[in-house]
Amino acid sequence: VFRPLAPIPSMSAILPRDLFRRSTMKKRVISIAGLSALFSAAALATPAMTVLTVNTGDPMAYAEWTKSSGEAIAKSVGAGVGGICLASGGYYKPGELYYWHLFDSHASAMGANSYNKTVMSELKKLPVDRVVNRSDVYSVVMPSEGTYKRGDTFANWNVVVETDQPAAYMSGLQRMQAAAAANGFGDISFTGYSYQTGPETGNMMVVVQGPSGERVGAFLDQTNSSWGTPIMAEFSDMRKLKHGFTMNCEVVYSAL
Prior knowledge:
Number of strands: 10
Strand content: 25-35%
Oligomer: single chain
Strand order of the largest sheet: 2-4-3-10-7-9-8-5
Shape: globular
Structural class: alpha+beta
Mean pLDDT: 86
Helix content: 25-40%
Largest sheet: 8 strands, antiparallel, barrel
Low-confidence stretches: 1-30, 32-43
Number of helices: 8
Radius of gyration: 17 Å
């Protein structure tokens, strides 16, 4: 997910505007970097993310359901943030969505009962058929400083990479983010995740996130610039690209 790497054209350009109508309730804000301090008493707790990969014939109806049921579901599993992303490119199957939750720790993420009474009750309200094709757990290994508010929308370019130099690679990502900010892209953030489940276990997912697909695309245009090219050249020696996908997202729950 997700500030959020969590995997673009503006979501509002794809889905009806009322899908992203701001809630009239008080905004709730939370940052990935602050999850541990907010929820966990364990000093060494590492934030984690869970993602369900869902396919349905009516993705907009599914997204609407997460907006109405997302708060109850997130609270029932102890998540700090919940959101839904609609794939726009690189998806495995048509009608693909990513329903994600951020947790203060792996203990919270892996201890959550995803079949609790609240979840099962909310699932009965789902108006469309859907298939859950994947369920993954990620470690947040390179958090960003961004905050999430309920109703926020954003776009992601998510890239799955294989690297035997994770520390050097993340250092390079941080340099790229700093260079981007210095060249007019202060609204672009980078987050790093490590797969803990599935066929990609041990690999990383890098999320490049911006306020819209246009902004993410504009950043990609500049990776061939005088300031972007040298860092991209370093990356070629550090990692192997495995899969890239784009998406448009909305936050459906934030604990604060």
